[in-house]
Amino acid sequence: MPADAQPPPSYEELAGLVAVLADRVGALEAENAELRRRLGMNAGNSSTPPSREPIAAKAARKAKRSADRSSRERSPDRKPGGQPGHKGSGLTPAAVPDRAESAAAPAQCRGCGADLADPAAGASDVSAAWAQVWDILPVVMEKVHWQLPRRRCGCCQKITTAAAPHARAGSVVYGPGINAAAVLLSSEGNVPVERTAALMEALLGTPVSSGFVARALARLAQRLQAAGFDAAMKAALQAEDVLCGDETPANVIRKDTDEHGETVPGAPHAVTIRTPGARLIWYAAMGSRSGPAIAGLGVLEGWHGYLVRDDYAAWHQFDAQLAGVQQCAAHLIRHCKGVLELHPQWQAWAGQVRDILREAAAAVQAARNDRKTQLDPGLLADLRARYDEQVAWGITTNRLRHWHKGRHPGYNLARRLQEKAEQVWLFTREFQVPWTNNASEQALKGPKRHQAVSGYWHTTTTLADYCRVRSYLVSARGHGIRATDAIHAALTGKPWLPEPATA
Asked: Residue 393: its pLDDT value, please?
């Protein structure tokens, strides 16, 4: 051996190198799995909203949806349109129509073409048929000039002028109908103020400024605030036994500032607290998603009912005072699906948990349909035992599994399902509690859609105005009140106000 040659590595050195390389390979495999998981995250297997999906995940989801559609073949015996037994949604003839008209008698036979007006041809009258046409009257701008009598007091010589509806003396204003149209298009239709103004001009034939549209929304929000709508809504919500809550980010250009002119930290959010049904839906603006901000809403402090929510930590502060918490099973099922996609064999337990939760939901619905107030104890015990078994396996199989960043997602999910099991299964014991928080997610589609169209709110004040108007309109609709009637009532200072169910 040459004098300058290095001795071959010893067995211990080679074994150490192999161990280091094995650890490195394990870490790289875990990192690769995490990156694949993130690329595959979408609205169907995680809490990621569709607007924030990675491009690759969105494309894959669309491709899978297309493949699923193409794999479904239509039966050659199936005719297009509604199938036998399908209940139609056509119009029912009005028993007392607004007016009646008579059509001109037919002049020519649709069979042979003979002249039906010629008595010599033998034409004769038979019983008349009928048809109804439902339509709206033409929309016409009505410009009303009010004469306002004035009288001088013989005592103090003051002059008093008569009042005109919705106007001051010497002014020209738009009436409640046009204000309602602006609010409905902008709030209900999620149309930007500029586009709302253009649509109203096309409809009415009279120019309407975007500034008027913005003022119409602000005016309605101010009238509602002055009438105590927010306080009434909070009181009504606090009288409920079951509430659902969720929040979503909101794009606000100018954030709030403190007394020193410094920007208040945090990202603005829109939050909803609502009943499981559409009877009461309240929206509010928050400067941040923090625990104090959610507590500052003034609804859940001191409330002792059942709360349906996701597992965001800021909601945990109320758990001790509540009768119970229901974790959103839709979120849990998405998380199970995401873990299952990491490795369909190793993570099969997640698929089992998903199926068990769906089976439990179906059992609860069947019991409700049978007018029962609880599940069969044996059935519930079997479902829960299967759930616990699969969750325990999820913990065991992932406890030591390599992951490049902390614990394996399967381990984290399984531990959460074990520790929060009572919150996962509350819906099987309390039938008035829904098993998902889909009601809140559906309610937040309004702000999300408005933001997608308009892009942003200028300030948290305009966001708060939007939330108050939306709360008023959707909750009034839930009580059978037309939006236009609700707007007119608010503009005259007599808005509909929610009342506690126990009142």
From this structure: 96
> Are both 286 and 319 inside the same structural domain?
yes
The edge-to-edge listing of strands for the beta sheet with 324-327 is: 281-286, 269-274, 242-249, 306-309, 324-327
Nearest C-alpha neighbor of 464 from the set 194, 213, 178, 256? 256
Residues 452 and 314 in one domain: yes
216 contacts: CB under 8 Å, gap ≥ 6: 179, 182, 183, 186
Structural domain span for residue 360 = 329-436
Q: In this structure, are 432 and 444 located in the same domain?
A: no
At residue 297, the 3 state secondary structure works out as coil
Q: Are residues 342 and 395 in the same domain?
A: yes
**Once rounded to an integer, what is the mean pLDDT over residues 29-46?**
69
Residue with tokens 């049978």: 370
Whether 426 maps to a domain, the answer reads yes
CA atoms of 391 and 353, how far apart (whole Å): 7
Is residue 61 a part of any domain in this protein?
A: no
Consecutive H or E run containing 254: strand 252-254
pTM: 0.77
How many structural domains is the chain composed of? Answer: 2
Give per-residue pLDDT as tens, 330-367: 999 999 999 999 999 999 999 999 999 999 999 999 99
For residues 259 and 282, membership in a common domain is answered with yes
Do 275 and 416 lie in a common domain?
A: no
User: Domain check: are 364 and 238 in the same one?
Assistant: no
Report phi then psi at 245, rounded to 5: -140, 145
For residue 358, what pLDDT is reported? 97
Alpha-carbon span 82 to 484, nearest angstrom: 34
* The two structure tokens encoding residue 162: 């008569």
Query: What is residue 233's three-state secondary structure?
Result: helix
| pLDDT of 54 higher than 70 | no
For 437-489, how does the pLDDT look when each residue is reduced to its tens digit (9 = 90+)?
Answer: 999 999 999 999 988 888 788 888 899 999 999 999 999 999 999 999 999 99
Residue 313 located in a structural domain: yes
Name the pLDDT band for 72 (thresholds 50, 70, 90): very low
How far apart, in whole angstroms, are the C-alpha atoms of residue 254 and residue 345? Answer: 50
**Residue 466 within any structural domain of the chain:** yes
How far is Cα 172 from Cα 175, in angstroms, rounded to an integer?
Answer: 9
